[in-house]
Design brief:
The complex is a heterotrimer of chains A (203), B (178) and C (200). With 203 residues, chain A is an alpha/beta fold. Chain A is built from seven helices and five strands; from the N terminus they run ααβαβαββαβαα. Chain A folds into two domains: 138 residues, Rhodanese-like domain (Oxidized Rhodanese, domain 1); 45 residues, no CATH class. In chain A, strands 1-5-4-2-3 form a five-stranded parallel sheet. In chain A, helix 3 packs across helix 7. Chain B is mostly helical. Chain B folds into two domains: 95 residues, no CATH class; 72 residues, no CATH class. Chain B contains ten helices and no strands. The longest helix of chain B is centred in the last third of the chain and has 21 residues. Chain B is globular. Chain C is an all-alpha fold. Chain C has three domains: 32 residues, no CATH class; 73 residues; 73 residues, no CATH class. In chain C, 68% of the residues lie in helices and 2% in strands. In chain C, strands 1-2 form a two-stranded antiparallel ribbon. The termini of chain C are far apart. The chains are: A alpha/beta (203), B mainly alpha (178), C mainly alpha (200). Chain C: It holds the Pfam family Sulf_transp. Chain C: Keywords: Membrane, Transmembrane, Transmembrane helix. Chain C: This is YeeE/YedE family protein. Chain C: InterPro entries: Sulf_transp_TsuA/YedE.
Chain lengths: 203, 178, 200
Amino acid sequence: MNRNYIFLTILMLVLAIGTLFLTGNDEPTQIAPEELLQEIIQPTRYITTDQVAKMIIQGDPSLLMVDVRPAAEYEEFALPGSLNIPLEQLLNDGNLAYFGVPGIRVVFISNDDIRADQTWVLTKRLGIDGTYVMKGGLNSWMQTIIDPSQPNADAPSVDHQLYAFRKGAQIYFTGAESAAPDGENVEVQVRRREKTNVAAGGC
Amino acid sequence: MISDKTNIEKPKYINPYLGGVLLGLLILATIYITGRGLGASGAIKSAVVTTSNTVAPKATEANHYMGQFLSDDHSPMYTWLVFESLGVLIGGLLSGIIFGRVKKWRTDHGPRITIKKRLILAVIGGALFGLGSQFGRGCTSGAALSGTATFALGGVIVMFAIFGTGYAVAYFFRKFWI
Amino acid sequence: MGPLIPNGVIGGGWDFVIAILLGVAFGFILEASGFSSSRNLAGVFYGYNFVVLRVFFTALIVAMVGLLYFDYVGWLNLSQIFILPTFLTPMIVGGIIMGVGFVIGGFCPGTSFTGIAIGKLDALFFTIGLYLGIFGFSLAYPLFENFFTSGDLGNVTLMEITGIPAPYFAVAFTVVALAAFWGTMFIEKRVRKNMKQYKF
């Protein structure tokens, strides 16, 4: 009997002391710098204005547009259905719950794509998947969707198809604008991630 | 006397270290599944709030302590700990049946006190424990065991306070037990 | 991944089923270890039966060390589990009251339930006492409402208050517990030699 207890004592000691050598993963939700670099150098995070326009027109339920500009700029003009989370408030309570919902593509929008890109890097560092950047931002949106330029007559047919789509989108967005000014009253319907509750307890 | 001796030598209980390991694993499982530890006194608290609410709903609601456990949606009995404690009763019965310890009502008492005195002491001890468990935010299982296992400062404080006091005052109550 | 229910891996509807199942296991282990007898429990304070100390501290170190491994493997996120809030003075006072209640009553709440299950009258009376104590507390609550919420340190852990990483605490508790197991083995032998009457 005593011999068994000696074994058990040693086993428990070894197990306990073993915990001292567990490499601390204090920041388990952050991804490694190498991975982050891999992601940054790949252009797959960009989504073009045309793709965004198409998704809005089709009413794609998986699209969540997040406008990362300051609230004042958002008030002035914003894409219909976009949600305003200024970059400064990204880490504020509850805002992160919008990201990382399975099946939802979050597209960051700013005037150019720098601010949106910064937001994207932040979310990547937090280990959140499914976030994208609208290439060229709202400036590009203006040039391509709201005021598309006609391609030359000898341009490839793809360009003409694209132009035709953009023209249609232009009517969709500007026409919608005159009906409901600036899409201001558009109800933003978003799914939030289930809150990861800290369990309550008590004896 | 001889039979008593053999009882000391061969109790019909499982090895305490085996029990401890199982209990430790159970706490791990509980935390893994529910995110919190085990408890017991909370169930009695729910019972107190429930009966009080049935007898005098207005006064219960006005009571600052009990009032916070009332909810419009469901009875105060509808809590995790009540169901868990129900399980404790079933589990205890199960083990009692398996090891042949379920018998008609009987009382454990020290050799120097009567059954009546033991029962009075049990009520007093229970009342003190109930009172203390509210201040301590839990009893031995909820605060001391589950709390300390999760490295909570409060759990360690309660654990040392309970056992420290127990040893400190044990001498004065020795007549009750030995 | 874990904890499962707070993270929504297991739906809320299963909550109470799981509660009962975990309770059954809890009750079974307590009863099978001998916690349904007040004489066994009180023995820890008089040196004739250290079953409480053995079960309690074995469970404690197994759970502590296990939690650290669970966290390391990624099964559990330690930041998501419930940490008992700390109210410094009320907890010390509460612990002292519970300590006295333990020696007088010979049970603690969880163990008294298992005692009732197998037909111990003193366990039943202890539970009645528990009920009265908590009821009395509720009635008298206005008197010490301020004291009850004083010394609030929030849901702090040992690590936060001392700055020492968790594994050191786990090792410290393990070493102390193992030493206590060996020490009490000899104490128990000596005390039991002098005991005339003791039934389990």
